[in-house]
Amino acid sequence: MRFSLWTGFLMLVIKMGAYLLTGSAAILGDAAESVVHVGAVMFAAFSVWLAEKPADENHRYGHSKIAFFSAGTEGALIVIAAVFIIYQSVRVWLSGAQPANMDQGVLLTIATIVINGVLGWYLIASGRRTNSLILVSNGKHVLTDSWTSLGAIVGLGLVHFTGWPGWDPVCGLIMAGNIIVSGFGLLQQSISGLMDVASPELHRRLNEVLRRETERHGISFHALRHRDSGHAHWVDVHLLFPDDVSLKQAHRVATAIEKAVSDAMDRRVIITTHLECEGDHDAMHPGEGTAVDEAFADDGA
User: Which residues pair with 221 in a beta bridge?
Assistant: First the structure.
């Protein structure tokens, strides 16, 4: 994240230099996106530090949910940058201003595309390897920055070959639309995480593993729930045992099932099992879990 932050400052200096040389609306929009990027990286760096803090008295599940705040902040800032780009592009279009020193501006912008492309790929790869939503979100933001830079180059190229200055603000508007889509994607991801929206694919996979393991041990399960905490999936499930199984034996089976579930997932899973007896389950828990079980009718009860 420190590398990303210092690179962001470097990109901002280069792009502002390119704008001062050319007066291009597309390049100014690209520079504005870099301002947003620097602010977002600063918040992301703080989020990485906070997410790594262990659980404490006030945060018994740790601090990893900050990852979704970080993604939402980046998404919101991207959208704000897009609004500024739209405003600037329309202003330049109406004024009919002609970009200047296009060759130098294009060379500087190409340099930022190469640097941001490498950095974005590295951040996304690192984030996926470490299951860090913060790094992945920041990497996507960096790649978005590369797309806006490419749009600026296309705009200047069209102005150069056609002689019509309107191509510059038109490409600025197209870039704004592209990064709005990226920004809203991050916002949606943030809201889904904060609201604990269940992943259908994860639910299917959990059901598959739990059904296989419980059948192997001659028991059943129900009330499966799961949520994404940013760095891991928290899973809760009830296991139903025959009445004559001892607590010691049931605990051993539950532990084996927990390990099997964890080993089968491609992300860290923290699973908690609740042990119940089949014989008096309905009497002890009348109406328990009906809403959850009806919503996920393929649970293995």
Answer: 239
Q: Please say whether the beta carbons of 34 and 145 come within 8 A.
A: yes
Are 128 and 145 in contact by the 8 Å Cβ rule? The answer is no
Angle at which helices 167-194 and 133-162 cross, to 10°: 170
**Is 281 a domain residue?**
yes
pLDDT recorded at residue 31: 77
CATH code of the domain covering residue 115: 1.20.1510.10
What per-residue confidence (pLDDT) applies to 101? 67
Residues 254-286 have pLDDT tens digits of 999 999 999 998 778 889 999 998 877 777 767
Which two tokens mark 170?
């038109």
The set of residues, in sequence order, having a beta carbon less than 8 Å from that of 172 and lying 6+ positions away, is: 25, 26, 29, 85, 86, 88, 89, 92, 151, 152, 155
Question: Which amino acid, residue 27?
Answer: I
Overall domain count for the chain: 2
Q: Could you tell me if 257 and 117 lie in one domain?
A: no
Spatial CA neighbour of 7 closest among 199, 181, 193, 141: 141
Contact present, 225 and 301 (Cβ < 8 Å): no
CA distance 109 to 21: 12
Residue numbers in the chain where pLDDT is lower than 50: 289-298, 301
Contacts of 117 (CB under 8 A, 6+ apart): 143, 146
Rg (CA), the chain: 26
Say whether both 173 and 238 belong to one domain: no
C-alpha span between 12 and 285 (Å, rounded): 61
Rounded distance, CA 68 to CA 231, Å? 10
DSSP-assigned beta bridge partners for residue 275: 239
Decide if 301 is inside a domain: no
Asked if residue 70 lies in contact with residue 52, where contact means CB atoms within 8 angstroms, the answer is no
Q: Are 224 and 51 in contact (CB under 8 A)?
A: no
pLDDT at residue 297, rounded to an integer? 47
**Residue range of the domain that includes 189:** 2-194
54 and 102 share a domain?
A: yes
